[in-house]
Amino acid sequence: MPIQRSHYDTTKDGQEIDSYRGMLQTKSTNIKLRYVLSNNNQYEVHIITYGGIITNIFAPDKEGLREDVVLGLDTYEDYTLKSRYFGAIIGRYGNRIGGAQFHLDGVEYSLAANNFGKNGLHGGNRGFDKQIWEATVEHDKLVLHYMSPDSEEGYPGNLDCYVTYQLTPDNKLNITYFATTDKPTIVNMTNHSYFNLNGHAAGSIGDHVLTVNAPHYLPIDKEFIPLGTLEPVEGTAMDLRTPTLLGDRLDTVPGGFGFDHNFCLGRSGAWKHVARLYHPGSGRCLNMYSTEPGVQVYSGGHMPDITGKGGNKYRKFASLCLESQHYPDSPHHMDDPNFPPVILRPGETYTSSTCYEFSVVKTAE
């Protein structure tokens, strides 16, 4: 179905985000814009150009009733003031970089220490989640573009980025990332949607069943920085290779925050079935595929009580993020063959693809 462009929000400061020019424009209409992707099966995905944020995903249950299955906020102002990266494009480097610095070709680069006061997280204070992306529609695809300037948030090189969203007739949300640079740099882009297949306001994800097809994971320190080794999931709380009821597992993960770990999937660039999330009550099911070598499974253990869409309260363990990625802190493990490389050089193209496939299971499993 054609992609629809519609009004999203009225801002407080008299400015509109112009989705085509990718900049703030003062407009008398004082309206912010969004794009709506839909198909004939009652699925609908809403995206705004601020942060490329997926604000809503409407999906039917086994009775045909639709719910919004991603957490989010009601207004543009809310996203600027209290976002937890809800639904946003993450970059230039997703996840954590220890010490908020890295070396590349003999040069040290300093980043914003926006995590524990000393580590870098999700691209810095104004990462890709807080930028205005230029939007164009190409048939059934929404294409977002952002030029990240040299030294933005400390990263070298002018990075020319494109992110494409497509909702297919068979209920697949495809997200594809491309980037080129004019200087050697590091890149690791992802999407940060928080899923609750029972509906964004339903509360705990303890009644969801999760499978992650990963034989290894990265152990972390108390600041969630990988220790540098890949460890087998077998015999640990990280073993999600068979369907696992989250309510039986979250409290057994060391640290008390549930999952906030990178799971290691295998070779970069090859399509693989990453994970399956299933909610028996509604019958909604989400299968994830990706070309990335890792996935960050985050069960919302750091979520403060926050007022989300419709005035609903979001709390700890109210959602699950499945963030396709290269490994966190990889810039400090460039010589380790177990850590896939994250360097992008002039003349190369960064590419990454992820598919979230929605379906309904009508009989109990």
Give a quick precis of the structure.
The protein is mainly beta. The chain has helices at residues 76-82, 246-249, and strands spanning 4-9, 15-18, 23-26, 32-38, 44-48, 54-60, 66-68, 89-90, 96-97, 101-104, 107-110, 120-121, 134-138, 141-148, 159-167, 172-181, 185-186, 190-191, 194-195, 209-212, 216-217, 231-232, 244-245, 260-264, 272-278, 284-290, 294-298, 306-307, 313-314, 320-325, 343-344, 350-360.
End-to-end Cα distance, whole Å, is: 32 Å
Determine Rg (CA atoms, Å): 19 Å
Helix content: under 10%
Helix/strand-derived category reads mainly beta
Mean pLDDT: 93
| Largest sheet properties | 9 strands, antiparallel
Strand percentage lies at: 35-45%
Strand order of the largest sheet: 13-14-15-16-32-26-25-20-23
Give the count of helical stretches: 2
Q: So what's the overall shape? A: globular
- Outline the low-pLDDT stretches: 14-31
**Number of beta strands:** 32
Structure report:
The chain is mainly beta. The protein is built from two helices and 32 strands. The strands form nine sheets. The chain has a nine-stranded antiparallel sheet. It has a six-stranded antiparallel sheet with strand order 19-30-27-24-21-22, with no helix packed on it. A five-stranded antiparallel sheet has the order 1-4-5-6-7, with no helix packed on it. Strand 10 and strand 11 form a beta hairpin. The longest helix has 7 residues. It is globular. About 5% of the residues have low confidence.
